Amino acid sequence: MKILVCISNVPDTTTKISFTNDNTTFNTAGVQFVINPFDEWYALVRALELKEAQGGNVTIIHVGGVESEPTIRKGLAIGADDAVRIDGEPNDAFAVAEQIAGYAKDKGFDLIMAGKETINYNGSLVGAMVAELMSLPFVSMATKLEIANNVATIEHDIDGGTEVVECALPLVLSANKGMAEARIPNMRGIMAARTKPLIQVSAANADKLTSIAAYELTKGRTDCKYIDASTPEKLIELLHTEAKVI
After folding, report:
1. How far apart are the C-alpha atoms of 1 and 9, rounded to whole Å?
2. What is the CATH number of domain 2-217?
3. pLDDT of 123-165, one tens digit each?
4. pTM above threshold 0.85
5. Are 198 and 73 in contact (CB under 8 A)?
6. Measured by CB atoms within 10 angstroms of the end CB, which terminus of the chain is less buried, N or C?
7. Rounded to an integer, what distance in angstroms lies between the CA atom of residue 41 and that of residue 112?
């Protein structure tokens, strides 16, 4: 089984966020980047579990510059067999999807996986776009995946319960919490990652559908107002006059 796992290079969740160039550019100075947790903990690890159970090959793919290679090497250390870095700017979901689909279209992958979203943009777009561009079925936010006889049985959450679907390979899916348990690379994996293939591919022309006008930090927490239980009418007044729906 040939599996392709899409990974993103994102700021660590403890990063202090700031912007430059009149709030149009994320300030990367001093920022520690990591594999997007949904890509790593769920998509990549489940792909490795499937390979270990059924044999095959797991390739990770990333659209980004050379500075993202340490993140890619971590994916190799966790257990991926090889990696591809498409040398482009990952600042538009459709352009990223076009790059991935363009690379994967003639490689014979049985399964393409990604996390349900990235923790920096929270777009949940790339997986579905890759599937559309490759004319493949797509299942979103999968929490369980089993494959037998070239058919995938997938569970994902829906309003009020869980839906179970079956789909013949090849297909694309996005992975959600519950798909797998996170793995920590061991020393053997870290050493092996240094010699595993990491292919650089030049970016193709891709359509960019969005642009960034500006970033804005959230205002953060404000002071709390405490209302005595004996004066509920004051709470009602404040709900009418000061409360905001976010």
Report:
1. 26
2. 3.40.50.620
3. 999 999 999 999 999 999 999 999 999 999 999 988 889 999 9
4. yes
5. yes
6. C
7. 15
